[in-house]
């Protein structure tokens, strides 16, 4: 395994020691246990970032002691919640459904509730399928007869299964593996592809070890992560839950106002590259961070239930009417809750003046960013042409570039510009996150031609 991946895998396995939730801690303080996934960076406002900011502890004071427990996936968090050892947890949409289903099956005393959202993507682009960067595959159909690594029951696995179904691709073997194991299998050639959730696709592409074959946004089904709580805890310790949710709102505001600092903080805590974290969590990032429980996300859970039943991981029914409960976040949020719950724009938009094109950045669908080494703020670009001009100017001036971000011209998926497929169409350059999207565009624009990223920078 690559050394960087070994470090990440080792850090992921280092979870905090267990402590029975609700028991008295040191000095007579009552222990509150929070389960989170540090590497799943779509949960940072209820996990890694929130923990580093200390908002929750500050709100609780000395009466309570907060214990943070870090896990690879949502499954062990659910197991610990059902055992009464975790009070509050954060996880993805599929694990949330499994959490609600298992808890309801154990009876009223074990019930859990989805009480807030961390981050989401309405099209599903937080999940993806990556392949070796030198592989010849162009579409998901090229995986026929191949082995794909995925974590069974995860959102990444769901994306793979639904994509194979959409394009009628059969004879694909799925190897059930944890993300770090799957990354190693992809690197060694034991797996032709890796289907995973945020941040694994971006991490492997950022490391130069893979490219994006399939963007989950092609399914156009929302994906998100949220906060779940034991109902008995919410009823008995309502003040603690309110403190947590208000702290989550504060952490979300911090992320919106200080996106680069937040990315660097998460990177320092997790060992992930800050450039990967920023791809998802930065201004205009793939993740939209919003604590409100939106109708589209509840609908997405209903859409997901049949799939989870079909693969046998949702063995008991789940009453979503009892599981989804926004009364707690509504109380913590205040009067603007309904208004903001109906809105879906990313509050962390890319703004500012494009230095190369000398104009304001005012179209979120086209805007990009350049992150220069040594700077704690990114440089905005108004559109792909201006992005390339900015990059060329910085290179000519001897500036070292940490990362460049652009958006897929068809889907809006934000990706690393130097890992995208670029087409030259008339007097403009058009970027795509996948070869599949580039081929779709080319079908409607037959004069468009492939151009390497470096050449596009030189000639834009």
TrEMBL record:
Q: Where is the signal peptide?
A: 1-24
InterPro entries noted in UniProt = Solute-binding_3/MltF_N, SsuA/THI5
What range(s) does the Solute-binding protein family 3/N-terminal domain occupy? 43-258
PROSITE patterns listed in its UniProt record:
PROKAR_LIPOPROTEIN
Q: Which UniProt keywords apply?
A: Signal
SUPFAM superfamilies, alphabetized: Periplasmic binding protein-like II
In the UniProt record, does the keyword Signal occur?
A: yes
> Is Aminoacyl-tRNA synthetase found in the keyword set?
no
User: Could you say which protein family the record assigns here?
Assistant: Belongs to the bacterial solute-binding protein SsuA/TauA family.
Q: What is the name attached to this protein's record?
A: Putative aliphatic sulfonates-binding protein
Organism equals Actinomadura rubteroloni
Origin organism lineage? Bacteria, Bacillati, Actinomycetota, Actinomycetes, Streptosporangiales
Gene behind the chain: ssuA_3
């Amino acid at each position: 395994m690559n050394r960087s991946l070994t470090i990440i895998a080792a850090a992921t396995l280092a979870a905090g020691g267990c402590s029975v939730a609700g028991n008295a801690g040191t000095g007579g303080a009552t222990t509150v246990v929070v389960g989170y996934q540090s590497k799943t960076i779509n949960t940072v406002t209820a996990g890694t970032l929130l923990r580093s900011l200390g908002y929750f502890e500050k709100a609780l004071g000395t009466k309570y002691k907060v214990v943070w427990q870090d896990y690879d996936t949502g499954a062990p968090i659910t197991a610990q919640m059902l055992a009464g050892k975790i009070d509050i947890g954060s996880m993805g949409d599929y694990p949330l459904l499994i959490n609600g289903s298992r808890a309801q099956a154990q009876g009223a005393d074990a019930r859990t509730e989805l009480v807030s959202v961390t981050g989401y993507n309405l099209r599903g682009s937080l999940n993806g399928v990556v392949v070796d960067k030198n592989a010849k595959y162009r579409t998901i159909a090229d995986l026929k007869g191949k082995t794909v690594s995925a974590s069974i029951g995860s959102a990444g696995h769901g994306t793979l299964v639904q994509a194979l179904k959409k394009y009628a691709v059969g004879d694909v073997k799925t190897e059930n593996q944890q993300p770090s194991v799957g990354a190693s299998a992809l690197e060694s050639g034991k797996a032709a592809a890796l289907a995973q959730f945020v941040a694994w696709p971006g991490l492997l592409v950022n490391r130069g070890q893979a490219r994006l074959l399939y963007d989950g946004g092609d399914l156009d089904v929302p994906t998100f992560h949220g906060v779940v709580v034991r109902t008995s805890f919410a009823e008995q310790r309502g003040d603690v839950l309110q403190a947590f949710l208000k702290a989550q709102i504060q952490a979300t505001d911090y992320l919106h106002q200080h996106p680069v600092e937040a990315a660097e903080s998460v990177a320092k805590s997790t060992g992930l590259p800050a450039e990967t974290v920023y791809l998802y969590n930065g201004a205009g990032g793939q993740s939209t961070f919003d604590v409100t429980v939106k109708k589209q996300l509840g609908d997405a859970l209903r859409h997901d239930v049949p799939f989870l039943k079909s693969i046998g991981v949702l063995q008991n029914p789940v009453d979503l009417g009892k599981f989804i409960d926004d009364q707690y976040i509504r109380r913590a949020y205040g009067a603007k809750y309904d208004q903001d719950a109906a809105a879906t724009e990313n509050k962390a938009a890319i703004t500012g003046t494009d230095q190369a094109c000398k104009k304001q950045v005012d179209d979120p669908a086209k805007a990009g960013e350049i992150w220069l080494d040594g700077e704690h703020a990114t440089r905005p670009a108004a559109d792909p042409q201006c992005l390339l001009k900015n990059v060329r100017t910085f290179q000519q001036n001897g500036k070292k570039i940490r990362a460049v971000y652009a958006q897929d011209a068809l889907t809006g998926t934000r990706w690393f510009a130097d890992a995208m497929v670029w087409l030259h169409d008339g007097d403009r350059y058009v970027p795509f996150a996948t070869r599949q999207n580039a081929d779709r565009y080319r079908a409607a624009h037959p004069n468009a031609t492939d151009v390497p990223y470096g050449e596009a920078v030189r000639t834009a």
